[in-house]
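Q: C-alpha coordinates for this one, please.
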Amino acid sequence: MQILQPFAAVPDPLALYAQADRSRPDGRCWVLANMVGGLDGSASVGGRVGELSGASDRVLFRALRALADVVMVGAETVRSEGYGAIALAPELAAARQAAGRPPAPPLAVVTRSLRLDWSAPAFAAARPESRTLVITGAAADPQRLLQARAVADVIIAGDDWVEPDEALRQLAERGHHVVLCEGGPSWLGQLAAAGRLDELCLTIAPLMGGDPLPLSVTPDGAPLAQFELRHVLADTSTLFLRYERGRDAS
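A: Here is the predicted structure, written as C-alpha coordinates:
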Protein backbone atom coordinates (compact mmCIF):
# COMPACT_ATOMS: atom_id res chain seq x y z
CA MET A 1 0.00 0.00 0.00
CA GLN A 2 1.17 3.53 -0.83
CA ILE A 3 0.10 7.03 0.16
CA LEU A 4 -0.30 9.53 -2.66
CA GLN A 5 1.44 12.82 -1.99
CA PRO A 6 0.96 16.10 -3.90
CA PHE A 7 3.51 16.51 -6.66
CA ALA A 8 4.23 19.10 -9.33
CA ALA A 9 1.41 20.53 -11.41
CA VAL A 10 0.66 18.85 -14.75
CA PRO A 11 0.71 21.55 -17.47
CA ASP A 12 -1.01 19.41 -20.11
CA PRO A 13 -3.08 16.55 -18.63
CA LEU A 14 -4.15 15.38 -22.10
CA ALA A 15 -0.52 14.49 -22.86
CA LEU A 16 -0.64 11.76 -20.20
CA TYR A 17 -3.67 10.22 -21.88
CA ALA A 18 -2.30 10.68 -25.40
CA GLN A 19 0.91 8.75 -24.70
CA ALA A 20 -0.95 5.50 -23.92
CA ASP A 21 -0.51 2.71 -26.46
CA ARG A 22 -3.98 1.93 -27.83
CA SER A 23 -2.88 -0.20 -30.77
CA ARG A 24 -4.11 -3.77 -31.11
CA PRO A 25 -2.21 -6.32 -33.24
CA ASP A 26 -5.40 -8.36 -33.71
CA GLY A 27 -7.04 -5.53 -35.67
CA ARG A 28 -9.83 -5.04 -33.15
CA CYS A 29 -10.63 -1.55 -31.96
CA TRP A 30 -9.55 -0.23 -28.57
CA VAL A 31 -12.49 0.82 -26.40
CA LEU A 32 -11.91 3.67 -23.97
CA ALA A 33 -14.69 4.85 -21.66
CA ASN A 34 -14.83 8.23 -19.94
CA MET A 35 -17.23 8.50 -16.99
CA VAL A 36 -17.79 10.70 -13.94
CA GLY A 37 -19.38 9.63 -10.67
CA GLY A 38 -19.92 10.82 -7.13
CA LEU A 39 -18.39 9.33 -4.00
CA ASP A 40 -21.47 7.10 -3.66
CA GLY A 41 -21.13 5.82 -7.23
CA SER A 42 -23.99 7.89 -8.60
CA ALA A 43 -23.67 8.76 -12.28
CA SER A 44 -26.13 11.66 -12.42
CA VAL A 45 -27.93 14.36 -10.46
CA GLY A 46 -31.48 15.18 -11.50
CA GLY A 47 -31.11 12.94 -14.54
CA ARG A 48 -28.00 14.67 -15.84
CA VAL A 49 -24.26 14.50 -15.23
CA GLY A 50 -23.73 18.28 -15.08
CA GLU A 51 -23.53 18.78 -11.31
CA LEU A 52 -20.98 15.96 -11.00
CA SER A 53 -18.67 17.51 -13.57
CA GLY A 54 -16.42 20.38 -12.48
CA ALA A 55 -14.45 22.75 -14.68
CA SER A 56 -11.37 20.51 -14.97
CA ASP A 57 -13.50 17.46 -15.77
CA ARG A 58 -15.36 19.32 -18.50
CA VAL A 59 -12.06 20.39 -20.09
CA LEU A 60 -10.71 16.83 -19.99
CA PHE A 61 -14.02 15.43 -21.26
CA ARG A 62 -13.82 17.56 -24.39
CA ALA A 63 -10.08 17.01 -24.88
CA LEU A 64 -10.25 13.21 -24.70
CA ARG A 65 -12.45 13.25 -27.77
CA ALA A 66 -9.42 14.35 -29.80
CA LEU A 67 -7.85 10.92 -29.19
CA ALA A 68 -10.82 9.00 -30.58
CA ASP A 69 -11.78 7.85 -34.06
CA VAL A 70 -15.45 7.73 -33.01
CA VAL A 71 -17.44 8.75 -29.90
CA MET A 72 -19.99 6.08 -28.96
CA VAL A 73 -22.99 6.90 -26.74
CA GLY A 74 -26.20 5.18 -25.73
CA ALA A 75 -29.45 6.74 -26.92
CA GLU A 76 -30.75 7.58 -23.44
CA THR A 77 -27.59 9.57 -22.72
CA VAL A 78 -27.97 11.40 -26.04
CA ARG A 79 -31.54 12.34 -25.11
CA SER A 80 -30.93 13.31 -21.47
CA GLU A 81 -27.71 15.25 -22.07
CA GLY A 82 -28.83 16.94 -25.30
CA TYR A 83 -25.91 15.71 -27.37
CA GLY A 84 -24.89 17.56 -30.49
CA ALA A 85 -22.39 16.67 -33.18
CA ILE A 86 -18.83 16.32 -31.87
CA ALA A 87 -16.77 19.50 -32.09
CA LEU A 88 -13.24 20.09 -30.81
CA ALA A 89 -11.27 23.15 -29.79
CA PRO A 90 -9.59 24.74 -32.84
CA GLU A 91 -6.07 23.69 -31.79
CA LEU A 92 -7.13 20.06 -31.30
CA ALA A 93 -9.02 20.02 -34.60
CA ALA A 94 -6.00 21.48 -36.38
CA ALA A 95 -3.67 18.86 -34.88
CA ARG A 96 -5.96 16.08 -36.11
CA GLN A 97 -6.10 17.56 -39.60
CA ALA A 98 -2.30 17.89 -39.68
CA ALA A 99 -2.16 14.16 -38.96
CA GLY A 100 -4.52 13.41 -41.85
CA ARG A 101 -7.59 12.86 -39.66
CA PRO A 102 -10.97 14.63 -39.80
CA PRO A 103 -11.18 17.68 -37.51
CA ALA A 104 -13.56 15.84 -35.17
CA PRO A 105 -14.61 12.23 -34.68
CA PRO A 106 -18.16 11.24 -35.61
CA LEU A 107 -20.81 10.48 -33.00
CA ALA A 108 -22.14 6.90 -32.91
CA VAL A 109 -25.52 6.47 -31.19
CA VAL A 110 -26.39 3.00 -29.87
CA THR A 111 -30.14 2.47 -29.93
CA ARG A 112 -32.47 -0.51 -30.12
CA SER A 113 -35.71 1.49 -30.37
CA LEU A 114 -34.54 4.27 -32.74
CA ARG A 115 -36.66 6.70 -30.69
CA LEU A 116 -34.60 9.78 -31.46
CA ASP A 117 -35.18 13.30 -32.70
CA TRP A 118 -33.73 13.12 -36.19
CA SER A 119 -33.77 16.92 -36.53
CA ALA A 120 -31.58 17.36 -33.41
CA PRO A 121 -28.05 18.83 -33.70
CA ALA A 122 -26.55 15.37 -33.13
CA PHE A 123 -27.63 14.62 -36.71
CA ALA A 124 -28.38 17.94 -38.39
CA ALA A 125 -25.13 19.66 -37.33
CA ALA A 126 -22.72 16.83 -38.18
CA ARG A 127 -20.06 17.68 -40.73
CA PRO A 128 -20.13 15.57 -43.95
CA GLU A 129 -16.75 13.99 -43.15
CA SER A 130 -17.95 13.08 -39.64
CA ARG A 131 -21.52 12.01 -40.35
CA THR A 132 -23.27 10.61 -37.30
CA LEU A 133 -23.58 6.83 -37.05
CA VAL A 134 -26.60 4.97 -35.68
CA ILE A 135 -25.98 1.45 -34.36
CA THR A 136 -29.11 -0.68 -34.00
CA GLY A 137 -30.54 -4.18 -34.48
CA ALA A 138 -32.18 -5.83 -37.47
CA ALA A 139 -35.54 -5.95 -35.65
CA ALA A 140 -35.76 -2.14 -35.49
CA ASP A 141 -38.93 -0.48 -36.74
CA PRO A 142 -38.62 -0.21 -40.58
CA GLN A 143 -40.08 3.32 -40.74
CA ARG A 144 -37.69 4.62 -38.07
CA LEU A 145 -34.86 2.86 -39.87
CA LEU A 146 -35.68 4.83 -43.02
CA GLN A 147 -35.67 8.05 -41.00
CA ALA A 148 -32.31 7.16 -39.48
CA ARG A 149 -30.76 6.41 -42.88
CA ALA A 150 -31.83 9.83 -44.18
CA VAL A 151 -29.65 11.66 -41.64
CA ALA A 152 -27.02 9.14 -40.51
CA ASP A 153 -24.99 6.09 -41.51
CA VAL A 154 -26.71 3.02 -40.05
CA ILE A 155 -24.91 -0.05 -38.70
CA ILE A 156 -26.94 -3.21 -38.05
CA ALA A 157 -25.21 -5.08 -35.24
CA GLY A 158 -27.45 -7.88 -33.99
CA ASP A 159 -31.11 -8.79 -34.19
CA ASP A 160 -33.29 -7.77 -31.23
CA TRP A 161 -30.50 -5.85 -29.50
CA VAL A 162 -27.10 -4.35 -30.27
CA GLU A 163 -24.33 -6.90 -29.83
CA PRO A 164 -21.10 -5.23 -28.62
CA ASP A 165 -18.73 -7.51 -30.54
CA GLU A 166 -20.55 -7.01 -33.82
CA ALA A 167 -20.90 -3.26 -33.35
CA LEU A 168 -17.18 -2.90 -32.63
CA ARG A 169 -16.23 -5.21 -35.49
CA GLN A 170 -18.06 -2.98 -37.94
CA LEU A 171 -16.61 0.19 -36.45
CA ALA A 172 -13.11 -1.27 -36.88
CA GLU A 173 -13.92 -2.11 -40.51
CA ARG A 174 -14.72 1.57 -41.03
CA GLY A 175 -11.29 2.53 -39.69
CA HIS A 176 -12.46 3.52 -36.22
CA HIS A 177 -9.73 1.85 -34.17
CA VAL A 178 -10.02 3.97 -31.00
CA VAL A 179 -13.61 4.07 -29.74
CA LEU A 180 -14.47 6.50 -26.94
CA CYS A 181 -17.56 5.46 -24.99
CA GLU A 182 -19.30 8.20 -22.98
CA GLY A 183 -22.05 6.03 -21.51
CA GLY A 184 -24.64 5.41 -20.51
CA PRO A 185 -24.38 2.91 -17.64
CA SER A 186 -26.29 0.12 -19.39
CA TRP A 187 -24.17 0.21 -22.54
CA LEU A 188 -20.96 0.52 -20.51
CA GLY A 189 -21.99 -2.56 -18.52
CA GLN A 190 -22.61 -4.51 -21.70
CA LEU A 191 -19.19 -3.59 -23.08
CA ALA A 192 -17.46 -4.67 -19.87
CA ALA A 193 -19.48 -7.90 -19.69
CA ALA A 194 -18.48 -8.74 -23.26
CA GLY A 195 -14.80 -8.23 -22.40
CA ARG A 196 -14.59 -5.27 -24.79
CA LEU A 197 -13.80 -2.43 -22.40
CA ASP A 198 -10.05 -1.86 -22.61
CA GLU A 199 -9.67 1.38 -20.67
CA LEU A 200 -11.70 3.40 -18.19
CA CYS A 201 -11.06 7.05 -17.40
CA LEU A 202 -13.03 7.70 -14.23
CA THR A 203 -13.54 11.07 -12.57
CA ILE A 204 -14.53 10.88 -8.91
CA ALA A 205 -16.42 14.02 -7.91
CA PRO A 206 -16.40 14.92 -4.17
CA LEU A 207 -20.21 14.71 -3.91
CA MET A 208 -22.80 12.36 -2.48
CA GLY A 209 -26.57 12.21 -2.84
CA GLY A 210 -27.06 11.91 -6.59
CA ASP A 211 -29.56 9.76 -8.44
CA PRO A 212 -29.70 6.01 -7.63
CA LEU A 213 -28.05 5.29 -10.98
CA PRO A 214 -24.64 3.58 -10.92
CA LEU A 215 -21.76 4.25 -13.29
CA SER A 216 -22.24 0.85 -14.88
CA VAL A 217 -25.15 -1.59 -14.97
CA THR A 218 -23.84 -5.14 -15.29
CA PRO A 219 -25.99 -7.74 -17.08
CA ASP A 220 -27.07 -10.71 -14.96
CA GLY A 221 -24.48 -13.48 -14.85
CA ALA A 222 -21.67 -11.39 -16.32
CA PRO A 223 -18.13 -12.26 -15.17
CA LEU A 224 -15.97 -9.84 -13.23
CA ALA A 225 -13.62 -7.69 -15.29
CA GLN A 226 -10.23 -6.89 -13.73
CA PHE A 227 -8.48 -3.57 -14.42
CA GLU A 228 -5.09 -2.10 -13.51
CA LEU A 229 -4.50 1.48 -12.36
CA ARG A 230 -2.31 3.45 -14.76
CA HIS A 231 -2.33 6.95 -13.30
CA VAL A 232 -4.03 9.27 -10.80
CA LEU A 233 -4.46 13.02 -11.17
CA ALA A 234 -6.09 15.41 -8.72
CA ASP A 235 -7.57 18.87 -8.94
CA THR A 236 -8.45 20.08 -5.43
CA SER A 237 -10.81 17.32 -4.21
CA THR A 238 -11.61 15.75 -7.60
CA LEU A 239 -9.72 12.62 -8.66
CA PHE A 240 -9.00 11.54 -12.23
CA LEU A 241 -8.25 7.82 -12.49
CA ARG A 242 -7.13 5.91 -15.56
CA TYR A 243 -7.42 2.12 -15.64
CA GLU A 244 -6.58 -0.43 -18.31
CA ARG A 245 -7.73 -4.01 -18.65
CA GLY A 246 -4.86 -6.49 -18.86
CA ARG A 247 -3.87 -6.97 -22.49
CA ASP A 248 -3.65 -10.74 -21.96
CA ALA A 249 -7.27 -10.91 -20.74
CA SER A 250 -9.44 -13.17 -22.86
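A few notes: Strands lie at 30-37, 70-74, 107-110, 133-136, 153-156, 178-181, 199-204, 227-235, 238-245. Residues 195 and 207 are 30 Å apart (CA to CA).
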